[in-house]
Amino acid sequence: MKTRILKASVAASTSALALVLAVGVATPALAADAPAADEAGSITVTARKRSEDILKVPVTITALTADALEKRGVTSMTTLAQSTPGININDNNSGRSDRSFQQIVLRGFTPSTTLATTTSMFIDGVAVASPSSIMSITDPKQVDIIKGPQSAYYGRNTFAGAINITTREPTGEWHGSLMGMAGTRDNYRLQAAVEGPIFGDMLTFRVTGEQFGKGGSYKNAYDGSKLGAQKSTTATALLVFKPAHNLTMKLFGLRSEDKDGAGAQSRLYAYNVTNSAGATIITNQSNCSFQGNTRGVAGQGTAVTNAYICGVTPKMANVVSSNSTANAAIKSWLASPVNRVVDPSEGVDGFGLRRISHHAHLSTDWVINEHLTATVLGGYNREVWTDLLDLDGYDSSTITSTTNPLGYWSYTYLVERKTNDWSAEARMAYKFGKVRGVVGASYLKAQAIQGGGGGLGALTSANLTVGGLSENRTTGLFFGATWDATDKLSVSVEGRYQMDTLGAYARPSGQVVPSSAYIPAATYAGGAQLAKYDYKNFTPRVILNYQFSPSTMAYVSWAKGVNPAQLNVNILSQSDSVQKAAVNAGGQLAISPEKITNYEVGVKGKLLDGKIRYAAAAYYAQWRNQINAITIVAPDSTSATGLSFINTSANSGDVDLKGAEIEASWKVNDLITLDSAAAINASKILDFKSTTISQLTGVFDFYGKEMKNTSKYSANFGVNLGGSVGDTDAHWFSRLDWNFKSGQWANESNTLRTPDRHIFNLRGGVSKGNISVEAFVTNLFNNHTYTSIADNYTIDNSLSKLTYYSAVVLGLPELRTFGIQAKVKM
């Protein structure tokens, strides 16, 4: 059976490629002056805070121009990761699969906790709050994915790398564009942009607007609605002021709103779930059992047998469903402002996600003279989101309940979060003879508060809690100097001295700390500071690069990076005896920052007079003080079980990562352009502790295991055909993309993983003058392979399967979608 499926897949892939080639061959009278494909050598990047040719900068970068983004159909973080080797998106680490928690996993650096990040995002070099903002830019100029630790220039949270999107500047002449897309599964996209002069070339503007929506790929077995429906509305505005030939000021603003329905997800269960009549409504897919441990600590606790799923994830045995219809009682609960983080006017009014993002930044570039250029940046982000979900994740309407406002048993849960941050940076780029570089200073103040709650019965404001404010202030002093020792050899020394201050504050309603185990026992007023910790780090980078010829450059680098520490504030709410027991068990209020040392070697260049352009790199990284989520089990005489379980974080891991990455493009002739990329991102756990995984599996020694939620192997291959139609000014193109990701482990015990994933996308179109029309199909062969995976629980009305992991939650892919779009430029 598997052989037949494989043969069918290969045959279908070959047929699709043949179809694209046939379209190209059958097109009559191709002109010799067909538009050239994007040339990597002409791309400029600012990975080192100054403009450099991508083939000359000794840093591993993937740059996608506006044309490349459009032809590959990249419109979101999910599609960006799909088309870029070495990147995974994990959107269900929080027990659900939607756009509320999207974690970027670059080079296998999987964030250890739900809110942690190892890759930062920027718009025009200014930090943004979340992945939703970075891909809200309508018609960007370029997206740069900078790989490896970038702490020397970009600071905190650039542990694995950074992603920067560059906005398109107005030309100073009146231009505009309109684009409309319609597709199956209720997909649509509307875009508009206009730019022009306000006062000649001195003051120009560009404004854009976009609305995107889709109906979702999966039918809800509960009520027939669609799961995974999304809607986004975005507006941006850019003012460019040039009062002098050497002075440019840019003011950019963005507002985006995501309003999604209930997410499309499913679970594989290790246990059956029955309804009130005793009928099975959820079928378990367990194929193995573990000899777990009640404490999750070696030498402690007792053995316990836990059913689970092992090997490669099977197809779903249960239908996709969710109790996602909000009645009047739930809507009334959501409309109340009591115990809320987000004001109801900005929150959801039913099941699903609502997120509102604001971003603004001001940049000033002053070319003082041929040797000095000064740049000043200032940025602001505000983001609020709420997410109402059916926590049990299936249709439980046949389980009776006399207290639930839905009229049957279901676990309704609300999660909400609000973030604000401000940033500033001033730097000076210099060039004197054989020495060039940059010096500068930066500051970031980030605040976040979250809360939520829910339950199985009546929903009131008492079900909700508001957490305390957390704050992070980061000050950095950075420098970079490149010395051209010879005409071919250059030496770069870069670094940042960074000071992080972490603060935790009491809940708005006040907070009682019953023990002095960590901080003085007292009743703290709302907003009072509970803890404050300072951290100082220096993150250097040294690069040697050698220009063998005008077309070939090689480099080697050594760099250090740091990821900010975390505070375990939730431990302060525990009783005196539990806090003292947590101290004895090694639980800390403040944990240390994560550290990385990265060694890298690479080569970039071009062949055949520039027709072939390539970049390759290999790296070895030592990740130390890895922060992981753990559970501390402490004796508690007030608990019915005699124990309390404290969810916290700790520096409980060390990992070595190594890999190789390559990109290449080949303009075969005026008709055919090929581009490809591949990555091997391997990991080896040296030390790791997780009480939750050990409780489930009984595994305590994780040495030699691989990181979760990342693909060890990934690749992309694209065939682009294009040219002129006869002797006219009309042009056509056709493109086929193959995107591959190998399977991901569910956890660090490496006992369950997803299958390998192959996605084919096909796009083609014609343009004449200012008008273009395109047709596309995504996920050409309707691949159903899961996109992400995470351990979770079987939640039933007995609540008896919550002690140990008893299910896995899965991200479901977008299924095959056909569409057509038209664009008019003015």
UniProtKB/TrEMBL annotation:
Report the leader peptide range.
1-31
Which part of the chain is the TonB-dependent receptor plug domain?
55-162
Coiled coil as a keyword?
A: no
- PROSITE patterns, per database record: TONB_DEPENDENT_REC_3
- Per its UniProt entry, which superkingdom is the organism in? Bacteria
TonB-dependent receptor-like beta-barrel domain location, by residue? 361-780
What membrane topology was assigned to this protein in its record? Multi-pass membrane protein
State the Gene3D superfamilies in the record. Answer: TonB-dependent receptor, beta-barrel domain
An example GO BP is: iron ion transport
User: Where is the protein situated, by its record's location annotation?
Assistant: Cell outer membrane
- Keyword tags: Cell outer membrane, Ion transport, Iron, Iron transport, Membrane, Receptor, Signal, TonB box, Transmembrane, Transmembrane beta strand, Transport
What GO CC annotations are associated with the protein? cell outer membrane
**Main location as per UniProt:** membrane
Which family is it part of? Belongs to the TonB-dependent receptor family.
UniProt name for this protein: TonB-dependent receptor
